[in-house]
């Protein structure tokens, strides 16, 4: 599975960085100095869970670099094509939802911060306290 992260700011770089840290094939869409920095320096993650991690050899490009190739891939999808996330959820397997949404709820419980919208989303996806 390949991941394309459109926008490598705080959120995109964090999500894509954690996917890359777990060995996933991630390409970031970035521009300007940020694109240059990702290509030259890689990506540095700061996490309370895993500490500081540097992701080397980050794949980063501008949208024009990948647009034609990805449109060809999308053109090949049938109407019943589903994402790997949906397949994992349907099969009751652990998915990115656990790391992205469930961890937020776990932290909110730990630090006693009410997050009703995230909690509702997490419960919808099967979160159990």
From TrEMBL:
Residues covered by the Ketopantoate reductase N-terminal domain: 3-60
Superkingdom field: Bacteria
Ranges where the Ketopantoate reductase C-terminal domain occurs: 64-121
InterPro entries with a match to the protein in the record: 6-PGluconate_DH-like_C_sf (IPR008927), KPA_reductase (IPR013752), KPR_N (IPR013332)
One Pfam entry name: ApbA_C
The name this protein goes by in its record: 2-dehydropantoate 2-reductase
Organism: Peptoclostridium acidaminophilum DSM 3953
């Amino acid at each position: 599975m390949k991941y394309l992260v459109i926008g490598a700011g705080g959120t995109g770089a964090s999500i894509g960085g954690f996917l890359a840290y777990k060995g996933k094939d991630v390409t970031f869409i970035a521009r300007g100095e940020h694109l240059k920095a990702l290509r030259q320096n890689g990506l540095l993650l700061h996490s309370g869970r895993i500490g500081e991690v540097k992701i080397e050899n980050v794949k980063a490009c501008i949208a024009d670099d990948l647009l034609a190739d990805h449109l060809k891939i999308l053109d090949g999808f049938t109407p019943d094509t589903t994402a790997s996330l949906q397949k994992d959820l349907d099969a009751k397997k652990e998915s990115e939802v656990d790391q992205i949404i469930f961890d937020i709820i776990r932290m909110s419980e730990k630090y006693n911060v009410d997050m009703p919208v995230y909690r509702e989303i997490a419960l919808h996806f099967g979160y159990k306290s």
